[in-house]
Design the sequence.
């Protein structure tokens, strides 16, 4: 087994970013502080506990990918202030997005915030690359996504810690990982594994524990790409109006203004920036 490079939340972001560029994945220990973890548990815990693992999915392929032992809670920014303001807008995430995503856009946005509570009996996911949701990009494609899995309980090999293949972001699309190239993202609650969209990874099997492995996937993408989750519907204007302007922009309420780059002005409403209409109460 290989290992994932580890840093602490107070490590220089440049060093974390250098490792992320080289290895395609890093673990940042203690990224989410205990008060924020407690707030997340208060806001999200009761909702995820009521989720039905046998819920209807988008299609049969998605259902098979997740299996029948995983509880889901989507649209986290619309359900938790702690997620929207303290996690989604965390300065470490934003600094890494500035470095990796801004070269290909005028601004980036949240792709999705999705909690997965992996229960006993959950099988391991297939190894995959998150950026394959935008499969119509020809290869080699630019870096279009930065993703993360945040642990809300301790992640262990037994309860389904995320599997990651360091270095696979540089591989050919045909290459498959062998066991010795796969690392377990074992980490304490509040820690996060952060990885590039082209890095191979998978949710681990919760085959031998009696615990629910609670954590969430959060990812960012280029501001001009269609996101996996429709965040403006998941966080409607009445809810978004109470969030900070930075959170509103990450959710897609701001325009993608590429005029200075000789590009377009995307996402306007009535020829204006929706953020202005939101603040005026017109949205």
Sequence:
């Amino acid at each position: 087994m290989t290992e994932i490079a580890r840093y602490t939340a107070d490590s220089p972001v440049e060093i974390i970013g250098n490792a992320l560029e080289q290895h395609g994945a890093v673990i940042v220990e203690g990224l989410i502080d205990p008060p924020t973890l407690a707030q997340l548990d208060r806001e999200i815990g009761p909702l995820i506990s009521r989720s039905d693992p046998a819920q209807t999915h988008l299609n049969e392929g998605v259902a098979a990918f997740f299996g029948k032992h995983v509880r889901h809670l989507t649209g986290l920014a619309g359900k938790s202030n702690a997620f929207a303001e303290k996690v989604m807008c965390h300065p470490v995430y934003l600094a890494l997005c500035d470095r990796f995503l801004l070269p290909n856009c005028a601004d980036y946005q949240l792709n999705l915030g999705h909690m997965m509570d992996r229960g006993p009996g959950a099988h391991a996911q297939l190894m995959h690359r998150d950026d394959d949701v935008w499969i119509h990009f020809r290869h080699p494609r630019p870096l279009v996504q930065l993703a993360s899995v945040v642990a809300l309980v301790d992640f262990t090999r037994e309860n389904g810690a995320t599997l990651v293949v360091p270095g696979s972001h540089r591989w050919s699309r045909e290459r498959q990982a062998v066991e010795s190239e796969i690392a377990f993202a074992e980490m304490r609650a509040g820690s996060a594994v952060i990885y590039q969209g082209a890095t191979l990874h998978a949710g681990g099997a919760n085959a031998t524990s009696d615990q629910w492995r609670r954590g969430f996937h959060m990812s960012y993408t280029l501001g001009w790409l269609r996101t996996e989750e429709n965040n403006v519907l998941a966080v409607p204007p009445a809810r978004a109006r109470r969030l900070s302007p930075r959170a509103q922009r990450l959710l897609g309420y701001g325009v993608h203004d590429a005029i200075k780059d000789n590009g377009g002005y995307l996402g306007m409403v009535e020829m204006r920036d929706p953020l202005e209409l939101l603040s005026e109460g017109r949205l």
About this structure: DSSP finds nine helices and twelve strands in the chain.
